[in-house]
Amino acid sequence: MGHHNRVFNGDPRSHLGYWGTPTSNANFCEEDYAVTLYIAEFINSLTNLAYVYLALRYRPSKSYLKLDFMSTSLILVGLTSFIFHATLRQTLQYFDDLSMFLLAGSLLQPLYCMNQSAHLRLLVSAVITVAISTMAAIYVRSGDIRIHMYAFAFMLHLIWPRTLYLIHSKSLNRTEGEKKVLMRRFYTAVGSLVLAYAIWNVDLEKCAELRAFRERLGVPLQWLFELHGWWHVGTAVGASEYIRLIRALGEREERGKGKKA
């Protein structure tokens, strides 16, 4: 996976952009400052608005002032990624990468705290906070993108098994109908994320061919083949669906608390 460090050179406008020559470890197949000298990667920046839009569309309350931690984290991913792709500065790449840690943690916490005692919830929350803070500090200190990649992948692999357990656990007595609805949402979320990952890798591995093809198409059709932008859209859909799934998993617990109150 060394291609996460790949920088696609040959962009004659890179040094002319408002933000100067890119300093980030990561760069992508969209040509720098091709649309405007004020935004380094125009399509890769704008497509991050999908995170913000879906976070607000599927917010837990009708009020925009009552966003939960998962929605807030998804919005932060969109905003930090927008700023990073717009500037391609290394410091802002860290903010983008660390927002991904925050989003993963916001999914892990409710999943592993669900149906637990108050003391165990506190312990789980503390462990997740310390672990993510430690990983973030190590990553920023080293600057090695592989640390971010492996840490984020590890967190993702803690999310889906717990989700499946909460759907199918006999102790939770879910009906077959409930399980089908939850699994449908699970497959939608995971399918969107896997498809987005595949598209992202095409963008990484076939950049020269994509650039040549886009040049033949011209504006605006060429924008449809900025595949890293589709990675943003796909992961926004997958993440927002997973957030809705986690909320659906916790509905029974919330109803139980309401009855006790």
TrEMBL record:
Residues engaged in binding Ca(2+): 30, 41
Keyword Phosphoprotein: no
Example GO biological process: ceramide biosynthetic process
Record GO terms (molecular function): hydrolase activity, acting on carbon-nitrogen (but not peptide) bonds, in linear amides; metal ion binding
Parts of the chain that traverse the membrane: 33-55, 67-86, 122-141, 147-165, 186-202
GO cellular component, one term: endoplasmic reticulum membrane
Amino acids binding Zn(2+): 85, 228, 232
Compartments where located: Membrane
Membrane-related topology note: Multi-pass membrane protein
Xref: Pfam families: Ceramidase
Main location: membrane
Cross-referenced InterPro entries: ACER
Superkingdom, natural source: Eukaryota
Keyword presence, Calcium: yes
Keywords assigned by UniProt, alphabetized: Calcium, Hydrolase, Membrane, Metal-binding, Transmembrane, Transmembrane helix, Zinc
Cofactor(s) recorded in Swiss-Prot or TrEMBL: Zn(2+)
Family from the record: Belongs to the alkaline ceramidase family.
This protein's name: Alkaline phytoceramidase
Organism annotation: Aulographum hederae CBS 113979
